[in-house]
Hints:
This protein has helices at 22-39, 84-100, 102-105, 132-141; strands at 5-6, 13-14, 17-18, 47-48, 50-53, 55-56, 80-81, 109-112, 115-116, 121-122. The protein has four helices and ten strands. The protein has one domain (5-141).
Amino acid sequence: MGFEGMTAYVYHNFLEKxxxxxxxxxxxxxxxxxxxxxxxxxxxxFEYQVPVAMGWDMRPAGGTWPQQTGFPSEPYKDRxxxxxxxxxxxxxxxxxxxxxxxASNGKTIMICCWNEYLEGNYIEPTEGHGFxxxxxxxxxxxx
Length: 143
């Protein structure tokens, strides 16, 4: 293929399903995880790094607004929030997918993002969430 692997930043939808809640986001991620994992199972030299995000909320940057390119406004995508437990569950699902497709997925889970505050996607400790997201990561990956 000319490259050795891929991951993603944020999946906003899968086929016709948009992320309107964190439950939706988990569902759309599962769709991508399974699709890409299956696609590359026969290529031992390609690694799909399973991505995980804690949410999405563009309101700090003014919201998801219509673009000059004609991309429509999608404000319903601006309130996709997780909790420590829903994020932890999503991490566990990512680990299960990664293990199921170990031959093509390697051992990497890509966690996005440390401090993407303008897009409401961060695991850095805050006054609102404390260390919840880091604790969820520790609970899933600590041995």
